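Technical annex, item 7. During the second reporting period the consortium partners agreed on a shared format for inverse folding records so that results from different sites could be compared directly. Each record opens with the tokenized structure and is followed by the designed sequence. A conforming record, contributed by the partner at site C, is shown below for reference.
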């Protein structure tokens, strides 16, 4: 890392702050080189790509402060290329709006956690040019960070309730023999056989009330490392929590440290913290989300799938430690619970995706449920993501709305949320297009909905862009929906109507709705998209000049609509998308998940069906100019999916282009890749949808 600035608790710069002369120069240049330019006529490309966003939040034990991580994007073509920086900030939960940067600059901070006494914030970071992540602590009231633990392969951590121990997830390093072989060029990979289980370790929490050494070159005492002990577990540990009294550890364990196992085979176990012996285990069905122990330790709540074929964990389950039983606390709730906290031994506070909004509510152990708050932009109630509770009952969470990306919020039950941060103050002066939830009825009578962004200029019968989410076990909510791959507000500023459709198979409407596409890939689920277009045309909102884009399963939808439904679409942009259902199941890193919650059959049992539901099979029909894009490092949807469709269309003289981003995974992470892709999407749509061109645009962007 080139530089970072670490600050004392209330924002006073420490020894790593920019020197005075350099600071003066920066301030002078700051007058000459403004931030994102203001744009009264809608959001611009540069503004979207420079937008900051709150990621993780944590509330202090007394509820007075909220620590949060702020994503700070790099400037494409200006900064050294890479993913966004992640800074540590702290703000008062009373809503005074004075968010203070504690550790800023070229840093990547994660997992901010207050100590039990609220005096320190513990975090994980790679700093001072080191290659491995370490555990650090910074005093809330002022002082320097000190390194607590430095261990290769260090992952997530949890502090025990009494503040005396750490539970750590650690991936062991390569053996010395393997390291020596790598140095000699023997870099072969034995596919899916050389995984290393993520281990659970317990360490004494270091004493913090001592003078710190110089943190620019910190050393962890050897005796501190020796206090660590490994907990013997059969399998790979993916998540850990302490019981409120610190006597037990609750872990999520999967057979192998592979993505497919993480998705489909992670199960909850309860261990004795003193000796690692197993106290209980739960056979939670299918996918697993968060879990936490009730005060008193008799119960565990977890977000689980309803069954093995449930596409998304969304049921709030109550487990009894004594017998390992599980039951759904809200079995008739047709929504997807995303986060929860224990309010007391008998009550949980939860937040769920419900339709295109979010709902916050409570439920008692006898199943008595109450909705407390529903997101509503006009009332300042945002889309709620994540929950963290202080001892006084105050909640902290991330929230976003149609007019802003995720910010930090606080809430007392019964009151309205308080927005604590404003990460993009310039955005308040940008004119944004109107956004609303729209509904339509499918031909089989199923009610559907989506998020519609109207053209900024208010025109009727505007060209229309469909921006389709992936999954399909996902949903678009009526909050901030614009990003580098689906830039709705930018498109609206250019005169488009933009629809984010929650087609059948989406989450937010219960398990049955999310299974509507099972075994019927590209069937009624994508017919829903065409019928959404018909609805908007009949309503006078859109013209028949329609483009479509999406990533992953949304890329599959794009490829299908650009081939099978080619008469309906003037342009398509397929990002990390599926083109061949025959080979997709054999080339993905989640083959078992794909069978369980998508296709519902093994690939070799329905060859003809899979072939006919592949855009590749219909490539000869295509009259829709198609831009195909994706990273060469994608393991979820293999790059061969893009290559096959490109070859099939190119060899038949179709209008097609394939853009590859070296080493990018399932979605672009680096600033330059995002900038390039966003501009290509917009140009492709303008070129073919608006302007009606028939030939490819130039290879290079302006």
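Designed sequence (site C submission):
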């Amino acid at each position: 890392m080139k530089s970072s600035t670490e600050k004392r608790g209330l924002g006073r710069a420490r020894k790593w702050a920019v020197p005075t002369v350099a600071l003066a120069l920066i301030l002078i240049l700051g007058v000459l080189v403004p931030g994102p330019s203001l744009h009264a006529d809608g959001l611009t490309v540069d503004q979207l790509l420079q937008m900051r966003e709150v990621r993780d939040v944590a509330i202090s034990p007394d509820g007075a402060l909220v620590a949060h991580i702020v994503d700070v994007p790099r400037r494409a073509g200006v900064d050294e290329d890479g993913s966004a920086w992640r800074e540590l900030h702290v703000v008062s939960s009373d809503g005074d709006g004075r968010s203070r940067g504690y550790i800023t600059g070229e840093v990547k901070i994660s997992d901010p956690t207050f100590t039990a006494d609220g005096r320190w914030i513990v975090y994980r970071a790679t700093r001072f040019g080191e290659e491995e992540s370490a555990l650090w602590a910074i005093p809330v009231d002022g002082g320097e960070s000190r390194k607590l633990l430095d261990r290769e392969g260090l992952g997530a951590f949890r502090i025990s309730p009494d503040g005396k121990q750490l539970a750590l997830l650690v991936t062991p390093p390569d053996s010395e023999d393997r390291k020596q072989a790598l140095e000699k060029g023997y870099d072969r990979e034995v596919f899916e056989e050389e995984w290393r289980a993520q281990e659970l370790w317990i360490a004494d929490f270091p004493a913090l009330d001592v003078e710190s050494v110089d943190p620019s070159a910190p050393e962890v005492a050897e005796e501190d490392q020796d206090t660590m002990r490994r907990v013997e577990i059969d399998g790979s540990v993916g998540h850990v929590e302490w019981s409120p009294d610190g006597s037990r550890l609750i872990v999520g364990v999967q057979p192998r440290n592979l993505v497919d196992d993480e998705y489909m085979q992670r199960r909850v176990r309860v261990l004795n913290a003193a000796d690692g012996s197993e106290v209980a285990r739960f056979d939670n069905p299918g996918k697993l989300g968060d879990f936490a122990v009730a005060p008193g330790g008799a119960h565990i709540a977890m977000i689980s799938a309803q069954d093995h074929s449930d596409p998304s964990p969304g049921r709030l389950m109550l487990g009894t430690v004594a017998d390992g039983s599980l039951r759904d606390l809200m079995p008739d709730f047709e929504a997807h619970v995303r986060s929860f906290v224990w309010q007391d031994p008998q009550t949980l506070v939860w937040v769920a995706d419900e339709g295109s909004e979010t709902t916050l509510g409570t439920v008692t152990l006898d199943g008595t449920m109450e909705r407390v708050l529903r997101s509503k932009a006009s009332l300042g109630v945002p889309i709620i993501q994540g929950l963290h509770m202080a001892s006084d009952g105050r909640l902290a969470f991330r929230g976003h709305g149609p007019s802003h990306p995720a910010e930090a919020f606080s809430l007392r039950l019964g009151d309205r949320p308080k927005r604590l941060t404003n990460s993009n103050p310039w955005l308040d002066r940008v004119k944004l297009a109107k956004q609303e939830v729209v509904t339509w009825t499918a031909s089989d009578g199923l009610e559907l909905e989506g998020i519609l962004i109207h053209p900024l200029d208010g025109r009727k019968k505007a060209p229309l862009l469909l921006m389709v989410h992936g999954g399909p076990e996902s949903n678009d909510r009526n909050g901030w929906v614009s990003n580098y791959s689906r830039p709705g507000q930018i498109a609206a500023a250019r005169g488009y109507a933009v629809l984010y459709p929650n087609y059948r198979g989406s989450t937010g409407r219960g398990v049955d709705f999310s299974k509507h596409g099972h075994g019927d890939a590209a069937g009624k689920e994508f017919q829903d998209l065409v019928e959404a277009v018909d609805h908007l045309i009949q309503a006078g909102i859109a013209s028949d000049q329609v483009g479509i884009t999406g990533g992953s399963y949304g890329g599959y939808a794009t490829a299908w609509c650009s081939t099978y439904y080619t008469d309906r679409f003037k342009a398509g942009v397929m990002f990390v998308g599926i083109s061949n259902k025959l080979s997709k199941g054999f080339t993905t890193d989640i083959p078992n998940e794909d069978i369980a919650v998508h296709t519902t059959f093994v690939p070799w049992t329905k060859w003809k069906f899979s072939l006919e539901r592949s855009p590749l099979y219909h490539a000869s029909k295509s009259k829709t100019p198609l831009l195909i894009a994706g990273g060469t490092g994608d393991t979820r949807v293999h790059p061969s999916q893009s290559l096959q469709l490109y070859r099939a269309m190119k060899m038949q003289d179709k209008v097609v282009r394939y853009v590859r981003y070296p080493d990018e995974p399932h979605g672009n992470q680096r600033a330059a890749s995002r900038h390039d892709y966003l501009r290509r999407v917009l140009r492709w749509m303008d070129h073919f949808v608006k302007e009606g061109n028939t030939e490819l645009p130039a290879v290079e962007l302006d």
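DSSP finds 14 helices and 37 strands in the chain. The CA atoms of residues 267 and 284 lie 6 Å apart. All partners now use this format for quarterly exchanges.
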